[in-house]
Design goal:
The complex is a heterodimer of chains A (334) and B (323).
Chain A lengths: L1 E12 L2 E13 L4 E5 L6 H9 L7 E9 L2 E2 L5 H7 L4 E4 L13 H12 L4 H14 L5 H4 L9 H13 L5 E5 L7 H18 L2 E6 L2 H7 L2 E6 L2 E7 H6 L4 H8 L49 E3 L2 E3 L5 H18 L1
Parallel strand pairs in A: 3-8, 3-9, 6-7, 7-8
Antiparallel strand pairs in A: 1-2, 1-4, 4-5, 9-10, 10-12, 11-12
Chain B lengths: L1 H27 L6 H6 L5 H11 L5 H14 L13 H36 L4 H15 L2 H15 L21 H34 L3 H8 L4 H32 L1 H6 L5 H10 L3 H29 L1 H4 L2
Helix pairs in contact in B: 1-13, 5-6, 5-8, 5-10, 6-8, 7-8, 8-10, 9-10, 10-12, 10-13, 12-13
Classes of the chains: A alpha/beta (334), B mainly alpha (323).
Chain lengths: 334, 323
């Protein structure tokens, strides 16, 4: 449904060209939930914002190809892109506290989107808003429809934002860290809601997050990004059972284990993510990698089989040894 | 709601009372500000001074003087000038108030429409030549002193180019009452309106543009864009709507001050006998009753304008409603 090929996003800055997304290619299939994982600055949000055509920084340079249902989105004039945005591809953002215009009721804001893309009466748009609020589980939707954002809790606001995103039955929903700003209990509810979307509305979802736990909960496929590149991708099962990239190992280690003795400290990845201005030569993760060897001075290509790809030079044997050795390590630590 | 309005009215009265006491004390109780000495003139003999003192009631205690003055100002409304004896000040203020109100209201309509249009256009075409031109013109408008601009306008429209087709319609300087001569009222005020509005138009345009650009960084603008709304709709319905609060605040302060007499320079340049001119003349001759009356009138408008602004806030921003 969505094919992104060789996407490069750079920003002109006074220190030169900053490449935020470097040669990223991925697909999203019908009714699929794709989890995009990475630290802040790994390019996960930027790459999906460019799918929406929402990067309007005059200093941004976007190259590559983004094909949505057979239609090239990159280079499409804003006027035409508007008909895709909100209608076919919808996006929800991280912070529901600031994502809604404070001076309008949530019903008004949902109806606004309905009216923009559909030729319906105001009453019909309002009725649709109530219907959507019911669908996302907001209590008393007839009353809540006339509430202002500040009168709702964070979880309710995020539901309202999701209701708004769903208002035109988009076939693709991009959710940028939809649970990061919420309480843990509310997080679970929102994640459940996102899964329900796929069941009830048949939408595909791209879920951007830095939380492996969230991915484990809802995603079908996972794509791990680091410093503007995809370092590993595959089915959720493959990624969690047999991760291939040392960075993915690091991410998985950062989840507290559910059983066994409680570790004294969670393992963290040594060092800091590199500055996009001064990316190391070769593998960008190299300087933080415990398994680095000479070959890592070159740029590894994303390769693999059975839909499980990784960008790492480690041989399968070394990798298997390192991965099981890591398990022994963590046992020793705990 | 009613309670809030009554409370607000009470606050307004309290502020006006405070202002009246302050002004009274400044002119009566500060050392060296003996009004009797001013009225009696230079080199007056002690006897004359004493006579003036008794005559004007300056020999009575200050609170009594204050109470008497307020009584004659608001209740009997027969307070007379210290300088022109027998000239009643309340009718004098009521006479000139329409001049200032006409001047400032017309200019306000101009500058709000113009300022918002400039701000919107500049923000919509941010970074373009149009944006830069508008901002430069705005800066020029803000920098031109109103007395200079007014004189230049007069020079062009009254003298140099008065006989050309362009400005032949401009009537003589002065004020024509709206009730007796509506077209004359309008024509005489067009040039003063433009002159007074220029400064504020530039100011509001620049402030609004800055606000709109800042609002453009907000998350909800990104949401609006993700909804597929048109840029115009995003700018007007989302960015402008949330930026209006700043404009309303500015407007309340400026409008109140101008109606209260801050349009003095414009009034003088265009020969309009308004409240500013009246206050200025009263200050020069230390005509305390007139000063008192004009100050009370001015404070009334400032306070009312601020109350209206507060009311508008409630309309504009639902977050204030419950607070």
């Amino acid at each position: 449904m969505l094919q992104v090929r060789g996407l490069k996003v750079s920003f002109r800055s006074e220190h030169g060209l900053v490449r935020a997304v470097d040669d990223v290619s991925f697909d999203v299939g019908e009714r699929e939930i794709l989890g995009v994982v990475g630290e802040s600055g790994s390019g996960k949000t930027i790459s999906l914002l460019s799918v929406m055509g929402l990067i309007n920084d005059p200093n941004a340079v976007i190259e590559g190809s983004i094909v949505y249902n057979g239609r090239e989105l990159l280079g499409l004039p804003q006027r035409e892109l508007r008909h895709v945005r909100g209608k076919e591809i919808a996006m929800i953002f991280q912070d529901p506290m600031t994502a809604l215009t404070p001076v309008y009721t949530i019903g008004w804001q949902i109806a606004e989107q309905v009216l923009t893309h559909n030729d319906v009466s105001k009453q019909a748009a309002r009725a649709r808003a109530v219907e959507l609020l019911t669908a996302v589980g907001i209590p008393n939707p007839d009353v809540s429809v006339d509430r202002y954002p500040h009168q709702l809790s964070g979880g309710m606001r995020q539901r309202a934002v999701i209701a708004m995103a769903l208002s035109c039955n988009p076939s693709l929903l991009i959710a940028d860290e939809p649970t990061t700003a919420l309480d843990v209990t509310v997080q679970a509810q929102i994640l459940e809601l996102i899964q329900k979307l796929r069941r009830d509305f048949g939408s595909a979802v791209v879920l951007i997050t830095h939380d492996m736990g969230v991915v484990a909960e809802v995603a079908d496929r996972v794509q791990v990004m680091y410093a503007g590149r995809i370092v590993e991708r595959g089915a959720k099962r493959d990624i969690f059972k047999g991760p291939r990239h040392p960075y993915t190992w690091g991410l998985l280690d950062s989840i507290p284990p559910l059983d066994g003795p409680r570790p004294h400290r969670l393992k963290s990845i040594a060092g800091m993510p590199p500055s996009l201005l001064a990316l190391p030569k070769g593998c960008a993760f190299g300087p933080r990698c415990r398994y680095r060897f000479e070959k890592c001075g070159e740029q590894p290509r994303l390769a693999g089989s059975g839909g499980h790809d990784s960008a790492c030079f480690l041989s399968p044997e070394t990798r298997a040894a390192a991965w099981s050795g890591r398990l022994l390590d963590s046992k020793a630590v705990s | 709601m009613l309670g809030a309005i009554v409370k607000r009215l009470g606050q307004m009265l309290f502020v006006m009372f405070g202002i009246s006491v302050l002004v009274f004390l400044i002119f009566f109780a500060t050392p060296g500000a003996d009004p009797a000495a001013r009225i009696a003139g230079r080199n007056a003999s002690p006897e004359t001074l004493a006579a003036v003192r008794k005559d004007f009631g300056f020999d009575r205690p200050l609170p009594v003087q204050y109470a008497l003055m307020m009584n004659r100002l608001f209740v009997t409304q027969d307070l007379t000038s210290f300088v022109n004896r027998g000239w009643k000040v309340v009718p004098a203020v009521i006479d000139v108030a329409p001049v200032t109100l006409s001047l400032v209201t017309g200019a306000a309509i101009l500058w709000v429409i113009g300022g918002v249009a400039i701000g919107l256009l500049a923000a919509a075409t941010r970074g373009s030549i149009l944006d830069r031109t508008l901002m430069m013109l705005g800066l020029i408008g803000v920098s031109m002193p109103v007395y200079w601009l007014g004189e230049v306008m007069n020079l062009i429209t009254q003298s140099r180019m008065h006989d050309s087709w362009l400005f032949a319609w401009v009537p003589q300087l002065g004020y024509k009452p709206l009730t007796s001569d509506p077209s004359g009222w309008f024509l005489t005020l067009v040039i003063p309106w433009i002159t007074l509005a220029t400064l504020y138009m530039g100011l509001y345009g620049r402030v609004l543009r800055a606000n709109l650009v800042e609002a453009g960084q907000e998350d909800y603008i990104r949401t609006a864009r993700a909804k597929g709304l048109s840029e115009t709709r995003i700018l007007v319905r989302h960015a402008l709507r949330t930026s209006l609060i700043t404009i309303v605040t500015l407007f309340g302060l400026d409008f109140g001050a101008l109606v209260g007499g801050a349009a003095l320079l414009t009034e003088v340049v265009f020969g309009l006998q308004g409240i500013g001119k009246l206050t200025y003349d009263a200050l020069r001759s230390l005509d305390l009753p007139v000063i008192m009356a004009t100050v009370m009138y001015a404070s009334f408008f400032v306070v009312v304008a601020n109350a209206l602004v507060d009311l508008l806030y409630v309309v504009l921003d639902p977050r204030i409603r419950k607070a």
